[in-house]
Amino acid sequence: MFTGLVETMGQVHALELRTAGVRLVIDAPAIAEGIQIGDSIANNGCCLTVVQINATLLGFDAGPETLACTNLGQKQVGDNINLERSVCLGDRLGGHLVTGHVDGLGELVKREDDQDWSTFWFKTPPNLSRQMASKGSITVDGISLTLVDVTDAQFSVALIPHTLEVTTFGKLQVGDQVNLETDLLAKYVERQMTAISDASSN
């Protein structure tokens, strides 16, 4: 589990082709100390297992499904990645409960910058928008954010200067794709509501 509070930005050092998928080698000096093989780290919100360590370089294997269903398949050497280590039982939960299982891809369709602050509008698949509500939580590229406005096809978030500075959002441009994970509780609520609706129609 994660909180959606990005610890650092790593940088793609290498993309090594494997029989099935790619090994992402990420340079992550800020969090590399103490990392062990088998640890879970969210890469742009996608939970991946550390399979290789070489000083500050961390290797992660990403299979075809991960590459197709997340924006990790679009990354190139030199690109930045939002990183967060998994939480330990008893840690403070500053964001919200994040599983690291990406639900789908969104796309930045509008960026409104007002001095150091910004409002981003993202296009989202309709099946995910049903799990969103104004003032609720959403994880975008591993970042825990509060939803501002939600429609059937889009949602907006307001970004403070700190978030723009310490995450990949500072350089995000219209047309860029992002990883989305909706709130875990919203998934359960939708599932229960669907079950109740199905039962009443039978």
What does this structure look like?
The chain is an alpha+beta fold and 202 residues long. The chain folds into two domains: 8-85, Elongation Factor Tu (Ef-tu), domain 3, CATH 2.40.30; 104-195, Elongation Factor Tu (Ef-tu), domain 3, CATH 2.40.30.20. The chain has four helices and twelve strands, in the order E-E-E-E-E-H-E-E-E-H-E-E-E-H-E-H. It has helices at 64-69, 126-129, 161-166, 184-201; strands at residues 8-17, 22-27, 40-43, 46-54, 57-62, 80-85, 104-114, 117-123, 137-140, 143-150, 154-159, 177-182. The strands form two sheets. Strands 1-2-5-4-3-6 form a six-stranded antiparallel β-barrel. Strands 7-8-11-10-9-12 form a six-stranded antiparallel beta barrel. The longest helix is centred in the C-terminal third of the chain and has 18 residues, at 184-201. The mean pLDDT is 93.
Number of helical regions:
4
Radius of gyration: 17 Å
What overall form do the CA principal axes indicate? globular
Q: Overall pLDDT, averaged?
A: 93
Strand residue content: 35-45%
- CATH level-two architecture of the largest domain: Beta Barrel
- DSSP helix fraction: 10-25%
> Spatial order of the strands in the main sheet?
1-2-5-4-3-6
Terminal-residue CA separation: 37 Å
- CATH topology label of the largest domain: Elongation Factor Tu (Ef-tu), domain 3
Class of the largest domain, according to the CATH hierarchy?
Mainly Beta
Largest sheet: 6 strands, antiparallel, barrel
What letter string, H or E per element, gives the SSE order? EEEEEHEEEHEEEHEH
Given helix and strand content, the structural type is alpha+beta
Which regions contain 5 or more consecutive residues with pLDDT less than 50?
none
- How many domains comprise the coordinates? 2
